[in-house]
Amino acid sequence: MLLSTLLFAGMNACVKQLHHLPALEIIFFRSIFSIVVSYVALRRLHVAPFGNNYRLLIGRGSTGALALICYFLALQNLPLATAVTVQYLAPIFTAVLGIWLVREPVRRWQWAFFALSFGGVLLVQQGGPAISATSAATTGGLAFLAIGVLGAFVSGLSYNAIRKLRGLEHPLVIVFYFPLISLPLAAVACLFQWTTPHGTDWLWLLACGIFTQGAQLTMTRAYQMERLSRVAPLNYLGMFYALGLGYVFFAEAFGPLAYAGMALVLLGVGLNAWYTHRVDARAAALPPAEEVVA
């Protein structure tokens, strides 16, 4: 999951370099790259590309594509700080939805750790680079805010679908369904809004595809291998990568509030990892029910 957040940060940096291209056009090109690479890899591994659990796979692909479109719409129509903060609701939605969808309870103290990490995200966004407000204060700003929240909620559904597919499908099959559904959606959008890439745009689009493919694969493996409430909060660490890349490549500075927020994020994630490990270790040490009764 740590590698996944790093790769997603690299993808975001590429998207930032391609700010002059429509968001759905970037999704279109990266979907082409992902669908080709995934299909070739699956054929070489002798794995059926379309899998067997069609409903879950289509659900994962559809929710993933919808969540990505919502996120990009929020990025384009809200201040960056607002859009990113709203997206960080996704790990909380993931854990909460997991209570019903995959029967993984969220323990009482974990709610406090989630709140701590999200509070840190809010501080980081307040103390981060100055972002000029766009449509947040204009008519329709609330609508795009709602779209951002919807994207985070749908992301939670998507991650739970990945968890339900644990042991049922190869991770590459799950990744394959994401571009399989997002490609035709992006292609339709490109019919109405298109800007031809030039020069180094093609290199950035290629890098975006590589980062996305790696991030999706490692994220899928993480959600298949570990409890949702344990893995999902690690998404918050992606903020550190993003701030570092922004500082090095885009000269984006941040203030004391951001550092305080980083400390809160680390504290929340660290406490969650320590607590779940402790509880799981204690549960593993308990004797079977029969021996307890005896």
Automatic annotation (TrEMBL):
Keywords: Membrane, Transmembrane, Transmembrane helix. Residues 1-124, 147-271 form the EamA domain. GO terms for cellular component: membrane. The chain crosses the membrane at residues 23-42, 54-74, 80-102, 109-128, 140-162, 174-196, 202-219, 231-250, 256-275. It is found in: Membrane. Its main location: membrane. Coiled coil: none annotated. InterPro entries: EamA_dom, EmrE-like. It comes from the Bacteria. It is a multi-pass membrane protein. It holds the Pfam family EamA. This is Multidrug transporter. The lineage of its organism: Bacteria, Pseudomonadati, Bacteroidota, Cytophagia, Cytophagales.
